Amino acid sequence: MTKALPGPPQDARAAQTSPRSAIPRSEVPGSAIPGPATLPPRDRRPRRTGPPGRLDPYLLSLALFAAYTALSLARYRHLATRSWDLGIFEQAVRAYAHLQAPVVDLKGPGANVLGDHFSPVIALLAPVYRVFPSPLTLLVAQAALFALSAVPVTRAAGRLLGRPRGLALGIAYGLSWGVQRAVDFDFHEICFAVPLIAFSLEAILARRWRAALLWALPLMLVKEDLGVTVAAIALVVALRCRRDSRRTILYALGVAALGIAATLVVLVFVIPAFNTTGGYDYWTKVDGGSTLLDGTGDKLRTLAWLLVPTTGLLALRSTLSVVALPTLGWRFLSSDDHYWGTDWHYSAVLMPVVALALVDALAGARYSPRPWLRTYAHHLPAAVVAAALSLTTTLPLAVLTEPAAYRKPARVTAVERLLDRIPDGATVEADIRPSSRLTSRCRVLWVGDTGGITPDYIALQNSRDRIRDIEARARQLHPRAEYSLVGTVEGYVVLKLDS
Which residues contact 176 (CB under 8 A, 6 or more apart)? Predict the structure, then answer.
């Protein structure tokens, strides 16, 4: 039999198993026995710097905030407002800022915005607007909220896929066409929904079920249809936590029921209570299944844009993609063809869904038994960010490469001088672009919808002289009043009521 080798001495064994053995020790010269342990001075201990790339999501968010803000200000600086929504939301926020009911005269004299869409969340902007009463306040706040949504997307991608792929997918999300279109479309309440959805889905990927539900709940205060999105998020939580906790499943099912119930209550009771007609104006735009096949080409193109350049179709492998169904459902069931396409802001709430569904699918595809799928998943982040960068050359952010975007045109200065001749507090009947310059200091009514009110001024955009006789147009709007021309500049006209 072979003899067992003698073990190390007792003190040596103690030194090897001691928890202090990992601390650097000073060696005694000429001896193999380590000397006593010496701790570094308190002020020389190495600082914990955290994992590499910890700041990537926040730095990317700051860069996107700068880009989104520049784009919004460039559009405003060029008097290129695309919708009356900027004026509508400014009137509502202005009312909240002065602790008044959110009356939006652009929707009709005395119209309460809660009778149009249920979006009390915009009251959060009131304190900032009270200090900075300008439509630019809304545009900058929207840019900040959209940029904030890149933090959870980039953070989740970095945690599950590593720093390079995480940063690539964060950039791809920040440059996604849906977000760029929304930034380019003045202001809309969905800017609050985008970060809430992103943080909620990030929490799902981190298996923080309660946080996911808590992030989703405020969506019910953003817009009336988002209660169904809350329900979809809660059902995904219930599905993915089924092996963890029965209690969490019950919580998730309760939140799903709450989301559906909240949507029904708001649509049937709350909005009609604030609406002057006692109903919900948008029921007429939903025509059940009869319109599902209308505009099939537009709808298929929207789905292709949603899934191909942003996710390479891989997002369909994730249960998170279910969260997109409520928004796609009401859009495609609507008879209004504006909802079917890729323009405006309607796809912004879908961007964090498909981005984080892609992150989830990529994390799972790494362990697929199919070699082709593992290879595809390995290269897809680079392809997605390349697609986002190349498409940006044709999307709104491309404007920032033009020097003219940072200069106010002389024609805009001339138009502003003309509008400045309208005194503060005046009642003005206006169309889209003049209204965006007046809602912060005047009572602005929509042209042709003054409800019998005779305004002090009329401000219209009359490009290409589409209205040949502007004073005759004023008599047509208000037969019992007389208006005289104040001035006309660069296709804009201002008239004043004769006293």
Answer: 310, 351, 355, 388
User: In the predicted model, is pLDDT for residue 257 greater than 90?
Assistant: yes
pLDDT interval class at 465 (50, 70, 90): confident
Pairing between strand 443-446 and 457-461? Answer: unpaired
Contacts within 8 Å (CB) and 24+ apart, 415-423? 415/79, 415/489, 415/490, 415/492, 417/489, 418/486, 418/487, 418/488, 418/489, 418/492, 418/494, 419/459, 419/492, 419/494, 421/486, 421/487, 421/494, 422/456, 422/457, 422/459, 422/494
Q: Do the Cβ atoms of 312 and 373 come closer than 8 Å?
A: no
Provide the whole-model pTM: 0.87
**20 pLDDT tier (thresholds 50, 70, 90):** very low
Contact predicate 40/23, CB 8 Å: no
The interaxial angle of helices 371-391 and 351-365, nearest 10 deg, is 150
Q: Phi and psi (nearest 5°) for 266? A: -65, -45
User: What is the total residue count of the chain?
Assistant: 499
| Mean of pLDDT over the chain | 88
Count helices and strands (H / E) in the chain: 20, 7
Cβ-based neighbours of 70, under 8 Å, separated by 6 or more: 400, 405, 406
- What confidence tens digit (pLDDT) does each residue in 320-356 have? 999 999 999 999 988 888 889 888 899 999 999 999 9
Q: Tell me the percentage of the chain whose pLDDT exceeds 70.
A: 88
Per-residue H/E/C for 327-394: HHHHHHHECCHHHCCCCCCCCHHHHHHHHHHHHHHHHHHCCCCCHHHHHHHHHHHHHHHHHHHHHHHH
Residue owning tokens 């690539």:
168
Q: Is the pLDDT of residue 408 over 70?
A: yes
